[in-house]
Write a structure and sequence with these properties.
Distance between the termini of chain B: 54 Å
Strand order of the largest sheet of chain A: 1-4
Number of helices of chain B: 11
CATH class of the largest domain in chain B: Alpha Beta
Largest sheet of chain B: 8 strands, mixed
Shape of chain B: globular
Strand content of chain B: 25-35%
Helix content of chain A: 10-25%
Number of domains of chain B: 3
Oligomer: heterodimer
Order of helices and strands of chain B: EHEEHEEEEHEEEEHEEEEHEEEHHHHHH
Radius of gyration of chain A: 10 Å
Strand content of chain A: 15-25%
């Protein structure tokens, strides 16, 4: 899972759906922990701007 | 050192209200907000009803953008149905000023407010205290609290640190995009709701006027009904249809948990308030008033526990979900069950309902009447409603 920081608005919607706690916001930036991510794609489906994707 | 009766994480309406209530009752309170400005960025359509608002504040022109005396439902084919409001009023807020007003009130009552401070972790509850690790730029320090209020909004991470499950499944996450449009021709005192699968599958689109020619225009869609498009794409289509020539003066995106309520909203030394506890109305997505109610309840419970029964806070926190339930929790769970029914009504049925409604005099155009129309020829919805009533 990758985030396109040019599109990301840091709204937190993906954090709220991530059941493995793999996404955090640090210093107003989205950080994805690839160790924790199980590629369920929940975050991709709720991202309002389409900033998340597999190997984006 | 750095020890408080209450540490509040999140400076939205729920957090500030909890801080304000606790401070007014004599507790020492620290409120931390991650963003550098309270109330900014605004991730909200900013609508509230008069009754809910006036329980807490006297409406003030400095934070009210406009007064709503009517509303329209707009069918997929564009048919506009002006509805009977039955003397009820609503307001569109200026959240950036409204939120700061509440925070200032909390500060005025003695709470310490810190912006640009992020909570990064929280300890277990030990010896009547939780320790919250705070960060500002590269500086880290800890604060100790007898009770922590998790009011960190949609992300709801603080509750998860305490072992509560506050994740949302994508189906119950309304994923939203909104623009503030200017230079549009609208009735400044009526808001409009658009129900259509074309622009907002599993949700609706809204136009909330913020003055003569400005409005918050947005939509929310269910997180599992995106069909390869995100809400921004849907909003572009919606704007092209209804407001092709408008100027965009602000743009925002975000999510609202429409699950009807998180499973558990308290733990030892912790209460979860507002969006963090999924307290928004699952049909409308409105969460400001419920956040204020929960914040106030949390503040009162904390004050009561810490003031009158020194240290015996654990038992008192059990009242929190119960009191929230009585005020809005039970209703929200009912709304959740009818949400599915409403958002599953096909577009052609919405058109038929609208055509039936415009034939009625405006006094008879009530939400109950709309629902009755919707149930007609739709036994599935009737079944859902029966479950809610029984």
């Amino acid at each position: 899972m990758e985030v396109d920081r040019r599109l990301c608005d840091v709204c937190g919607t993906c954090v709220a759906v991530c059941s493995s706690d793999a996404i955090t916001i640090r210093g107003n930036k989205l950080v994805i922990d690839h160790e924790l991510c199980v590629n369920c794609l929940a975050c991709v489906s709720v991202c309002p701007v389409g900033a998340l994707g597999e190997g984006k | 050192m750095n020890e408080y009766d209450m540490v509040v994480i999140g400076g939205g309406p729920a957090g500030s209200m909890a801080a304000c209530t606790a401070a007014e009752n004599g507790l020492s309170v620290l409120l931390v907000e991650r963003d550098p400005i309270i109330g900014h960025p605004v991730r909200c359509a900013e609508g509230v009803d008069e009754k809910g608002l006036c329980e807490f504040f006297t409406p003030d022109p400095s934070w009210i953008a406009s007064e709503m005396t009517g509303y329209n439902l707009v069918a997929p084919d564009g048919t506009v149905v002006a509805m009977n409001v039955d003397g009820q009023k609503g307001y569109i807020l200026e959240r950036i000023i409204f939120d700061r007003m509440i925070a200032e009130r909390a500060a005025g009552s003695g709470a310490m407010i810190k912006t640009g401070v992020e909570a990064v972790s929280m300890s277990e509850y030990r010896n009547g205290l939780r320790t919250v690790q705070l960060r500002n730029c590269s500086k880290e320090w800890s604060a100790h609290a007898r009770v922590v209020i998790a009011a960190d909004g949609v992300e709801s991470r603080v509750a998860r640190w305490a072992g509560l499950n506050t994740t949302t499944n994508p189906h119950d996450m309304e994923t939203c995009a909104q623009v503030t449009l200017s230079g549009i021709d609208i009735d400044p005192n009526s808001f409009s709701l658009y129900f259509t699968k074309l622009y907002a599958p599993g949700g609706y689109a809204w136009v909330f006027p913020k003055g003569e020619c400005t409005a918050n225009v947005g939509l929310g869609i269910s997180g599992d009904k995106t069909n390869g498009k995100n809400p921004c794409n849907y909003l572009d289509d919606f704007r092209a249809r209804y407001f092709p020539d408008a100027s965009v003066v602000a743009r925002t995106v975000g999510g609202v948990q429409c699950s009807g309520g998180a499973e558990k909203i308290f733990a030892d030394g912790l209460m979860v308030c507002g969006d963090a506890a999924h307290m928004a109305n699952p049909i409308t997505g409105g969460g400001i008033i419920n956040g204020l109610i929960a914040g106030k309840i949390a503040g009162e419970i904390a004050a009561d526990a810490l003031k009158t029964q020194h240290g015996a806070i654990e038992g008192n926190l059990k009242q929190f979900p119960k009191r929230c339930n009585d005020r809005f929790g039970k209703m929200n769970r009912r709304f959740y069950r009818i949400k599915e029914g409403i958002f599953n009504i096909p577009d052609y049925r919405f058109n038929e309902i609208a055509h039936e409604m415009i034939k009625l005099p405006i006094e008879k155009r009530t939400p109950v009447r709309v629902l009755r129309s919707a149930v007609f020829n739709n036994p599935e919805l009737l079944l859902l409603l029966a479950k809610v009533v029984l």
